[in-house]
């Protein structure tokens, strides 16, 4: 007779494989089939809700097969939407189940979910000047990809290096935007350590970015990203 721990493992295997024989000959096969369908319905639904654009670049049969492989072979043991989506991405990476291009698109869609569920109190109003210590929003994700799917609104996966920022604003909207090297440098400086604008300008001067025109452009970018809820005073 199986102990409790072994019974739980056997039940999980029976549900994953849709095979009641893992639990012995006297197991109610109908009950196991119901559990298996429930697990698949929930898991498949979570994956489809996260990877909306990704599945458009994979045939329906291959997409279904990939989700089924994840249930059968993966180690997902969480009931939470964001955990299942992350574990599915990790499974696809580990198994090399899709191309590197598709993995980048999947990473982007997962980053959108991370921005959505991030614990962050994004203020709607605040006072600041160039000496106020500012931070990058905790509801922000920075990504660098070798594929540009942003410009075509996900219709074309073009081989082209791009920088992308994904963030959640104070209205709980999740937004993404392609950015240039200057923005990406600015965000990375802030992600490493909260800084004031004047401190950022000093750091850029130290590494050779010291033109007046650049500082003017940077000041405009700083203002823009504050208005977009990407940068706000450090708490």
UniProtKB/TrEMBL annotation:
Annotated ranges, domain Putative DNA-binding: 8-92
Domain named NGO1945-like C-terminal: residues: 137-226
Gene3D superfamilies found in the cross-reference section: 3.90.930.50, DUF2063
Database matches in Pfam families: DUF2063, NGO1945_C
InterPro entries for the chain: DUF2063 (IPR018640), DUF2063_N_sf (IPR044922), NGO1945-like_C (IPR054098)
Protein's name in the database: DUF2063 domain-containing protein
Organism: Seminibacterium arietis
């Amino acid at each position: 007779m199986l102990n409790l721990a072994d019974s739980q493992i056997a039940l999980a295997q029976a549900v994953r494989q849709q095979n009641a024989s893992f639990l012995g000959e006297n197991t109610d096969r109908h009950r196991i089939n119901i559990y298996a369908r429930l697990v698949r319905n929930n898991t498949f639904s979570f994956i489809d809700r996260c990877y909306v654009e990704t599945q458009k670049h994979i045939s329906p049969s291959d997409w279904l097969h990939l989700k089924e492989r994840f249930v059968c072979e993966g180690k997902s043991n969480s009931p939470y939407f964001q955990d299942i989506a992350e574990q599915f991405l990790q499974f696809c990476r580990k198994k090399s189940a899709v191309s590197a291009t598709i993995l980048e698109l999947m990473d982007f869609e997962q980053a959108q979910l991370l921005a959505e569920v991030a614990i962050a109190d994004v203020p709607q109003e605040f006072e600041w000047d160039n000496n106020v210590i500012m931070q990058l929003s905790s509801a922000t994700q920075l990504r660098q990809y070798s594929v540009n799917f942003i410009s075509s609104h996900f219709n074309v996966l073009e081989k082209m290096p791009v920088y992308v920022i994904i963030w959640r604003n104070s209205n709980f909207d999740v937004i993404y935007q392609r950015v240039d090297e200057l923005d990406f440098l600015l965000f990375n400086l802030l992600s490493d350590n909260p800084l004031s604008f004047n401190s950022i300008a000093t750091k850029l001067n130290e590494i050779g970015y010291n033109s007046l025109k650049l500082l003017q452009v940077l000041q405009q970018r700083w203002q823009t990203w504050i208005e977009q809820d990407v940068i706000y005073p450090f708490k």
